[in-house]
Design goal:
heterotrimer, A alpha+beta, B alpha+beta, C alpha+beta, A: alpha+beta, Uridine Diphospho-n-acetylenolpyruvylglucosamine Reductase, domain 2, Uridine Diphospho-n-acetylenolpyruvylglucosamine Reductase, domain 3, Enolase-like, domain 1, 3 domains, four-stranded antiparallel β-sheet, 14 strands, globular, C: alpha+beta, five-stranded mixed β-sheet, 5 helices, about 15% strand
Chain lengths: ~290, ~800, ~160
C-alpha cells in the first residue's frame, strides 16, 4: 500500500502555501497532520497531483488567549492541546474531547485545523466546535474571512473551504463561569471513531439553565447541533425530567445513517442515551463549582 | 564399577523444565534485531505487487499488460497462463470418501473466484513502482453469477465455484454413535427452540448457531523472498511460514524440483495462529518468478491484501439439538454443520479441516450416549478459509456449552451442577469418545471446580441479585472443553490428508569444545520454542541453558519435520528433544566412565560446570568428553562409534488430551449494550509445563483472540462480494483496553501418553473464550428474555434482538441476519 | 519525474542521510534506506502501531509520515533504546514479565510505553492500557505488557 507519485512542496509561510494552492487548484491537497490523508494516500483512495505540506509553516502553530477567546493556530498539534493547562482550565470540553481523538501517537501529528478541515462528522473536534459555536478563520487569495461553525460544515467530509483557501485559525470562547461540560461517546473500542457522541455544555444559574449547548457526532452528515434540545433545557432547567426530555428531543433531531458498525435506529437510540449522560455529567460539574 | 563409584551428572544442575525463566530469544527481539522475513535484503532484490480481482466471480477474457510493462523500473508482468507453465496448481487431496478435488493456481487462470484473488504479478525495482504499474494492467472480465450464502451454495441449483467439482459441497463427513438417527428432528429450527418434557421426561434444546468469519491478523503480514541458483538448480525461500517442511515438500512438487534442492527458511515469524501454516499461491508465484527471472524476488503483503487473501476461519452455520433428561443428563446430541470455506480448498489441509473438527470434537468432555453430526464444507466466492487457532474447536465448544447452559436454565439446574453430572469421570480413562477419539487422562470436574472457586461462585447468586436490583445486567458463563494435542501418526492432521505429519525430530550435537546445538523441524512463531526446547535439552544433558543453542526453521539444517501447528510444538518437539538428549546423555555417561577409569590418560579438569563425576573424586568435563568422542576409537570404550550427535524421531502415535474450563463474568450496559468482561478465569491442564511463564502467555493470548471473536471481530462482505472490512478500522482486533486481566491456573496432570508428560496449550485460549463469554452475556440478558446464538455478540445485535422481541412478544423468533 | 529529496536527520544519536522520493513513507526509509529493520510495518494505515518511533521526542506512526518530513529531525527507534549494551529499563521489564511473544509489535510497544512514561511518570493501570491501545498485539493478551510497563515506571521514577 504505497502512495501514487505526487509533487511535493513544504512552504514555510502561509503566503507561499496560498500561492501554491493558486497554482495547482483542486489538483493539490493540503497535508496537515497526515493521520487521515496519508492513510488515504497509502490506500490510493486519494491520488492528488501535488501535496502542500503545512508542517513547516511555523506561523500557524500557536495558542493565544485574548478577551475571553482562545485562538488556535490551525496547525497546533492535538497533543499540545491535550497537555495545555490553559485549555484544561478555560476550555475543558475541548480538553476532554482531545483525549478521545485516536491515540497519543495520532495526536502527536494531528492538528486542530486538519481535523476540522477533514470534517468527518463522527470526529470529536468538529462536534466540539459546533457545540461551542466556534469561529473558523479562512485565508485565501481574496483575503481573510470568518465563518461560523454551522456554516463551515456543509456535508460529509465537506466544508466551506474553497480550493484556494486555507484554514488558519480556530476561535473558541472560553467556558463561562458556572458552566460544566462533558463529552460522551460510544465507540466499539477506545480511540475508535464515535458511533455516536455528544458534546454538552450547560451554564447554571440557581435552578435554571442559563445556557445549554449540545452537538452530536456520528449521527448526521455534519455534526448535529441540537438546538431544540438546548431550548428545552433553557426553558425547563436541568432536572432529571428536563434532561430526559432534551435527550428524547435530541434523538428526533439527528439524521443518522446505518453502516457496518451501527444501524440508523441504534444511533438514534444512542443519541438519546448519550445526551442524557452528557447532560447529567455536565450539570453535576456546573453545580460542583 | 560399583554404584558408589559410578560418576553422576553434577547434582547441582538446575531443574529447568518447569521453571519460569526468561526467554532466550527476547534480547534480540527487544533490541530490534530479530530476523523477520521482510528484514532480509539480498542484493539485486526485486519486488512484487499483485493485481487482484475486484470481481467475486468472473471469467477472465483478456489481460493487457503492455502499459504496465512499459513503466520504468518494471522487470516483468506475469499472468496466470504464463505462470501455469512454471508451476502446477495446488491440489489439496483427501482420502475422505466423496471429497471433491479442486485446483488452486498460483495466479488465476481462466476465471476468478473471489474478490482479492491475485490475477497478475508485477515485478519491479521497488514496491512503489510495482504498484504504479499494476494500476495500468487492463483486464476484461465477463462477470459470472456469484454465490455467497452457504445454504444457497450447498443447494444443487447453485452457481458452481468450481465447474469441475460439479458441486460446491467439497466434503461431507458424518459421525454417528449409539442409536441416534441421522438428520435433525425439525426442519425448521426457528419453530421451537425447546420441547416440553415428553413422556420419557426429556427436554430438547435446539437452535441455529452462527459463528461469523474471522481473520487471523498476525501483526506481521505474510512475506516471501525467493532466490533461485541456476548453477545448482536450487531454490531458497525465506518465508513467514509456520511449516517450513510442508512448504518445502509442496514447492518441490509444484515447481517440479527435487525436494533436496529446495530450502525453506523461517526464523522469526510475527505470529501465525494457523494462518501461516498453509501454502499460499503468492508463495508459489514468488518462487516461480525467481526461477523465471534469475533474480531474488520478494512479496510482502500489505494489510489490505492480508484482509482479502490470507486464510480466514470460523464461518459456520450449525443447527444443533441437545436432548437431556429432567436431571440434566445428556441423552443425545445432534448437529448439522455448514461451513463456508470460501473459493479454494486450503493446501495442504483441505477445506474439510475445520468443519470436520467441529463435529469430531462436539461431544466434548461429556458422556454423550447418542450422537449424530454431519459437517459439510461448502465453497463460496469468498476468501479461502484455513486453520486458525482452535480450528473447529472454538465453534463446537460455543455450540455445546451454549446448549448445556440453556438446558440448565430451562430445567432450573445450576450450570456447574449440570456439567458435573455429565462429565466423563476420572476413573473412566482412557475413554473413547463417540467420534472415536481416545482421551488418555483428564480431570474435567477438577478444572470446573477450580474455576468455580476462583470466581467465588458461592457468593454469585446474591451478587447477581443485588446487581439486578440496581438495574445492572451482569452474568456469569462457563465453558469446558477437551481437545487432542500432540497428535502422532495414528490420526491424520487433517481429514484424509496424506501428508506425513505424525512425527517430529531433533538433532542434538555436542561440539568438540563442549557447546551444545539442538536442531528441530518445528518452527517458532512466538511461542518460545527456542527457550522451552532449550530447557529440555539443557536439563537432560545437565548443562546450563545458555550453553545450548537451539536452531529451527531452516530445512537445510533441520531434520524432517512439518512445523508448528495443532498445539504440537512442545509435545512433539519436546519429545524428540528428550529422546535425542537422552541418547546423547547416555553416551556422555559411558565415555565419562571410561575416561575416569583410564586415569593415566585423563587430565583432571576443575571446570565449574558442566562436569561429570563425584565432587570428592576426580571429575571430567563435558569438553574433555567431547574431545575424546571426536578423537576417535583410541579414547573411547570398545565398540563405541565416535562422535557426539543424535537424531531421534518422535511419534506419540495417538496424541494427548488437553482440556480446560473457562469462566467469565460480564456486564452489559442496559442503555448502550456495551459489553465489559469483568473477570476471566481459566483452569487448564497442559500436563507437565516446561515454562509456566510461556504457558500463561499462550493462554492469555489465546483468550484475547477468543474474546475478539466473541465481541469484536467479523469479516464482512457486501452483497456483491466486496470486502467491507478492508482495513483495521473496520476489522476490529482487541486492544489493551478490550482485554481484561486473565487469571490462569493449572491442573498439572502429566500426560501419560507423551514423552515428557507434556500436553499442548497453544490453542486453549481461543477454544474456551467465545463460549464462556457468550454464556455469560446470555446469563446477563436473561431477564430481558433474549438469547443470542450468533458471534460476535455486539451492542448492535443486542439492540436488534430487543427491538424484535419488543415487536413480537410471545414468540421467540430471531431476525434473519443474512 | 520523481524528484528525489535529500534527507538529513539524527537517528539514535547518529547523523544519517539519504535520498527519497517525496511519497516514500518514513517507515520504509528507516527500514530500507537506513537499514534499521527493528521498526516494523504492520498495516500502513496507522492502526497497528508496530511502526511507532520517537520523532523529536514524541511517539509517531512512521507509516503515516513521509520520509521527507523527517529532514532535520531527531528520531529514536527501538535500536536506540539500549545504552552501551545495557537494556533500557523498559526492555528489561518486558523481558522479565514475558511481555512479548513473536516480537513483531514489540518495537512499537516499547516506544509508546516510553512516550507514556515521559509524559505520565506514574500511570495507573487504566492509563497504561489507554496508552498501549495505540499498538495492536495479537500474541500476549496485553496483561504482561501492562505489568512490564508498570514495573519499568517504578524503576524510571526518580527515587525520593
Amino acid at each position: 500500500m504505497k502512495p501514487s507519485p505526487f509533487e511535493y512542496h513544504d512552504p514555510t509561510s502561509v503566503n507561499e502555501a496560498l500561492e501554491l494552492l493558486r497554482r495547482y487548484g483542486p489538483e493539490a491537497k493540503i497535508l496537515a497532520g497526515g493521520q487521515s490523508l496519508i492513510a488515504l494516500l497509502n490506500f490510493r483512495l486519494s491520488a492528488p497531483a501535488a501535496l502542500i505540506d503545512l508542517n513547516r509553516v511555523a506561523e500557524l502553530s500557536y495558542l493565544k488567549h485574548e478577551n475571553g477567546t482562545l485562538r488556535f493556530g490551525s496547525m497546533l498539534r492535538q497533543r499540545a492541546i491535550e497537555f495545555s493547562p490553559l485549555v484544561l482550565q478555560r476550555l475543558p470540553l475541548l480538553a476532554e474531547a482531545t483525549r478521545l481523538v485516536g491515540h497519543l501517537p495520532t495526536r502527536t501529528r494531528g492538528t486542530i485545523g486538519g481535523s476540522l478541515a477533514h470534517a468527518d462528522p463522527a470526529a470529536e473536534y468538529p462536534t466540539v466546535i459546533t457545540a461551542l459555536d466556534g469561529e473558523l478563520v479562512i485565508r485565501g487569495s481574496l483575503g481573510e474571512r470568518v465563518v461560523r461553525a454551522h456554516d463551515f460544515f456543509q456535508g460529509v467530509m465537506s466544508t466551506a473551504l474553497g480550493p484556494d483557501e486555507i484554514l488558519v485559525e480556530v476561535r473558541l470562547a472560553e467556558a463561562p463561569p458556572d458552566s460544566g461540560c462533558a463529552f460522551e461517546e460510544f465507540s466499539r473500542r477506545h480511540g475508535d471513531f464515535a458511533i455516536a457522541g455528544v458534546a454538552a455544555m450547560v451554564v447554571v444559574d440557581g435552578a435554571r439553565c442559563r445556557m445549554a449547548r449540545l452537538a452530536a457526532a456520528g449521527v448526521g452528515p455534519i455534526p448535529m447541533r441540537l438546538r431544540a434540545a438546548e431550548e428545552i433545557l433553557e426553558r425547563e432547567g436541568l432536572s432529571e425530567r428536563a434532561i430526559n426530555d432534551a435527550a428524547a428531543s435530541a434523538a428526533e433531531i439527528v439524521e443518522p445513517a446505518g453502516d457496518l458498525h451501527a444501524s440508523a435506529d441504534f444511533r438514534r437510540h444512542l443519541t438519546r442515551v448519550l445526551t442524557r449522560r452528557a447532560l447529567a455529567r455536565a450539570a453535576d460539574r456546573a453545580r460542583g463549582k | 564399577m560399583t554404584d558408589s563409584k559410578r560418576p553422576s551428572l553434577d547434582s547441582e544442575r538446575a531443574k529447568l523444565v518447569g521453571a519460569r525463566i526468561k526467554r532466550v530469544e527476547d534480547p534480540r527481539l527487544l533490541t530490534g534485531r530479530g530476523s523477520f522475513t521482510d528484514d532480509y535484503r539480498p542484493p539485486g532484490l526485486l519486488h512484487v505487487a499483485f493485481l487482484r480481482s475486484q470481481h467475486a466471480h468472473a471469467r477472465i477474457v483478456q489481460i493487457d499488460t503492455a502499459q504496465a510493462r512499459a513503466v520504468a523500473g518494471v522487470v516483468a508482468v506475469v499472468t496466470g497462463e504464463q505462470l501455469a507453465r512454471s508451476a502446477r496448481p495446488m491440489r489439496a487431496v483427501s482420502t475422505t470418501p466423496g471429497y471433491r478435488v479442486t485446483d488452486w493456481p498460483a495466479l488465476a487462470v481462466a476465471k476468478v473466484r473471489y474478490v482479492g484473488e491475485a490475477v497478475a504479478a508485477v515485478v519491479a525495482q521497488s514496491r512503489y513502482v510495482a504498484e504504479d504499474a499494476a494500476e495500468l494492467i487492463a483486464i476484461d472480465y465477463e462477470p459470472l453469477e456469484p454465490v455467497f450464502n452457504v445454504e444457497e451454495a450447498a443447494a444443487p441449483e447453485s452457481p458452481l465455484v468450481h465447474e469441475a467439482a460439479e458441486s460446491n459441497v467439497l466434503l461431507s463427513r458424518e459421525f454417528s454413535h449409539g442409536s441416534a438417527t441421522p438428520g435433525l428432528s425439525h426442519e425448521d429450527h426457528h419453530l421451537s427452540r425447546s420441547t416440553a418434557p415428553d413422556a420419557a421426561e426429556t427436554l430438547t434444546l435446539r437452535d441455529r448457531f452462527r459463528f461469523r468469519r474471522h481473520a487471523a491478523i498476525c501483526i506481521e503480514p505474510r512475506s516471501y523472498i525467493a532466490e533461485f541458483n541456476p548453477a545448482e538448480d536450487s531454490l531458497t525461500l525465506h518465508s513467514t511460514t509456520q511449516c517450513p517442511g510442508v512448504v518445502r515438500m509442496a514447492l518441490a512438487e509444484l515447481l517440479g524440483m527435487a525436494e533436496h534442492r529446495v530450502r525453506v527458511i523461517s526464523i522469526d515469524v510475527g505470529g501465525g495462529f494457523g494462518a501461516k501454516s498453509s501454502v499460499y499461491p503468492e508463495e508459489v508465484c514468488v518462487c516461480a518468478l525467481a526461477r523465471m527471472l534469475g533474480r531474488p524476488v520478494k512479496w510482502t503483503g500489505d494489510r489490505r491484501e492480508d484482509l482479502m487473501a490470507t486464510s480466514q476461519a470460523w464461518d459456520e452455520v450449525i443447527d444443533a439439538e441437545l436432548t437431556v433428561r429432567r436431571d440434566g443428563a445428556i441423552v443425545e446430541l445432534k448437529a448439522e454443520v455448514l461451513a463456508d470455506v470460501g473459493a479454494y480448498s486450503i493446501y495442504p489441509w483441505t477445506a474439510g479441516i475445520e468443519p470436520v473438527q467441529t463435529v469430531s470434537f462436539l461431544p466434548g468432555p461429556y458422556h454423550v450416549p447418542n450422537y449424530w453430526a454431519r459437517a459439510r464444507a461448502v465453497a463460496t466466492c469468498k476468501a479461502p478459509t484455513g486453520p486458525y487457532r482452535g480450528v473447529g474447536r472454538p465453534i463446537s465448544t460455543f455450540v455445546r456449552e451454549g446448549l448445556i447452559e440453556r438446558a440448565a436454565r430451562r430445567l432450573g439446574i445450576d450450570p456447574i451442577e449440570i456439567r458435573l453430572r455429565n462429565y466423563i469421570g476420572n476413573d473412566e480413562f482412557p475413554y473413547k469418545a463417540p467420534t472415536g477419539i481416545v482421551w488418555d487422562l483428564a480431570d474435567f470436574a477438577g478444572s470446573l471446580l477450580k474455576v468455580r472457586d476462583l470466581l467465588d461462585y458461592a457468593t454469585w447468586p446474591e451478587h447477581q441479585a443485588q446487581a439486578r436490583q440496581q438495574g445492572r445486567l451482569i452474568g456469569i458463563g462457563f465453558a469446558s472443553f477437551v481437545e487432542l494435542t500432540g497428535i502422532g501418526s495414528a490420526t491424520s492432521a487433517a481429514p484424509g490428508m496424506p501428508l506425513p505429519a505424525g512425527t517430529e525430530a531433533a538433532t542434538v550435537r555436542i561440539d568438540p569444545s563442549g557447546t551444545v546445538t539442538a536442531i528441530f523441524g518445528v518452527a517458532a512463531h512466538g511461542q518460545g520454542l527456542e527457550t522451552t526446547l532449550g530447557q529440555i535439552v539443557a536439563e537432560e544433558l545437565g548443562v546450563a541453558l545458555e550453553d545450548v543453542r537451539v536452531l529451527w526453521g531452516d530445512t537445510d539444517v533441520a531434520p524432517y519435520g512439518t512445523g508448528s501447528y495443532a498445539s504440537r510444538g512442545a509435545v512433539m518437539g519436546g519429545g524428540a528433544a528428550i529422546m535425542a538428549s537422552r541418547a546423547l546423555g547416555e553416551k556422555v555417561q559411558r565415555i565419562a566412565t571410561h575416561l575416569l577409569e583410564m586415569e593415566s590418560a585423563v587430565s583432571i579438569v576443575t571446570e565449574p560446570r558442566p562436569a561429570i563425576g563425584d565432587r570428592a573424586q576426580p571429575r571430567v568435563s563435558l569438553k574433555e568428553i567431547a574431545k575424546a568422542a571426536y578423537a576417535g576409537l583410541k579414547r573411547l570404550p570398545k565398540g563405541m562409534e565416535p562422535g557426539l550427535q543424535a537424531t531421534c524421531f518422535y511419534d506419540p502415535y495417538y496424541g494427548t488430551a488437553s482440556y480446560a474450563t473457562h469462566g467469565a463474568v460480564v456486564e452489559v450496559d442496559p442503555d448502550t449494550f456495551g459489553i465489559t468482561v469483568l473477570r476471566y478465569v481459566v483452569a487448564d491442564d497442559c500436563g507437565r509445563m516446561i515454562n509456566p511463564l510461556i504457558v500463561d502467555g499462550q493462554v492469555c493470548g489465546g483468550v484475547a483472540q477468543g474474546l475478539g471473536g466473541a465481541l469484536l471481530e467479523e469479516v464482512v462482505y457486501d452483497p456483491s462480494g466486496q470486502l467491507i472490512t478492508g482495513s483495521l478500522m473496520d476489522y476490529l482486533v482487541p486492544t489493551a483496553t478490550d482485554v481484561p486481566r486473565i487469571e490462569v491456573s493449572h491442573l498439572d496432570i502429566p500426560s501419560p501418553t507423551s514423552l515428557g508428560g507434556f500436553r499442548g496449550v497453544g490453542e486453549s485460549g481461543t477454544i474456551g473464550a467465545p463460549a464462556a463469554v457468550a454464556n455469560a452475556i446470555n446469563d446477563a440478558l436473561s431477564p430481558l428474555g433474549i438469547e443470542l446464538a450468533e458471534l460476535p455478540i455486539t451492542p448492535l445485535r443486542i439492540f436488534e434482538h430487543l427491538a424484535v422481541r419488543g415487536r413480537n412478544l410471545g414468540t421467540q423468533t430471531k431476525p434473519s441476519s443474512e | 519525474m520523481a524528484e528525489h529529496r535529500k534527507i538529513q536527520l539524527k537517528i539514535n544519536g547518529e547523523l544519517r542521510e539519504g535520498w527519497a522520493e517525496p511519497r516514500r513513507l518514513l517507515v520504509d526509509f528507516i527500514r530500507d534506506d537506513l537499514g534499521l529493520t527493528g521498526t516494523h510495518a504492520g498495516c500502513e494505515h496507522g492502526i497497528c502501531g508496530a511502526c511507532t518511533v520517537l520523532f523529536n521526542g514524541e511517539a509517531v506512526r512512521s507509516c503515516l509520515m513521509l520520509a521527507v518530513q523527517a529532514n532535520g529531525a531527531e528520531l529514536l527507534t527501538v535500536e536506540g533504546l539500549a545504552h552501551e549494551g545495557k537494556l533500557h529499563p523498559l526492555q528489561q521489564a518486558f523481558w522479565e514479565h514475558h511481555a512479548l511473544q513473536c516480537g513483531f509489535c514489540t518495537p512499537g510497544m516499547l516506544i509508546v510505553a516510553l512516550d507514556l512514561l515521559r509524559t505520565t511518570p506514574s500511570p495507573n493501570e487504566e492509563e497504561i492500557r489507554h496508552a498501549l491501545s495505540a499498538v495492536l498485539c495479537r500474541c500476549t493478551g496485553y496483561q504482561s505488557i501492562v505489568e512490564a510497563v508498570d514495573a519499568a515506571a517504578s524503576r524510571l521514577r526518580p527515587s525520593r
